[in-house]
Amino acid sequence: MAWNLIPKEQKFFEMFSRASANAVEAARTYRDLVKDWRLNHPHIEKVRELEHEGDVITHEVIDGVNRTFITPIDREDIYQLASDLDNIVDAIQAVSDRMEMYHIDRTDPHVLKLAEILFKSAQEVDKAIREMADFKKSRRVLDVCIEINRLENEGDAALTAAVKELFLGTPDPIEVIKWKEVYEITEAAIDRCEDVANTIEGVVVKHG
After folding, report:
1. Sequence-distant (≥ 6) Cβ neighbours of residue 123 within 8 angstroms
2. What is the pTM of this model?
3. Which among 27, 53, 75, 78 could bridge 122 via Cys, Cβ 3.0 to 4.6 Å?
4. 74 — alpha (psi -120 to 50), left (phi > 0) or beta?
5. Does 3 fall in a domain?
């Protein structure tokens, strides 16, 4: 295997941009799925395809690191960022599959709200990724990361409200189990967006 002794900085940022765009599309698909939820919805399979595409991009990033002698940012940060981006789509697929597996038969205002926060978070992740290639824009990137953190807090509050309402009265225990997991995994996908923001903040601080 030939080693590339000349750093091609844009290669990694372009792959990160593909991964973040893929995460946005997965979040958009999930949001649209829960808006129009039904079993055997074609969006369920679309989410799986997007998750597979995320795996492909992650593999390309890792292969790129192995083939590049000098990288634009630390290797461990490249690995971490690739993993963080992939984890967003993994979580989205997990909740989409869980809804199908549990034969969820309706949509729900709380999961709709969480899905909307997730979509906004993924959009902000994409914005931060596209800006971070230019370290002169570090202030702008950090501002986007702050917004991602704010959205994560909003997601926490939405999850708390959803679970609180779930336990009102004498609910069906099986329904509680199903919906609690759907809420929590959706919010976990929002958390994965914050993981990306935290990694980006660390990179910006190193190169600021």
Report:
1. 24, 27
2. 0.93
3. 27
4. beta
5. no
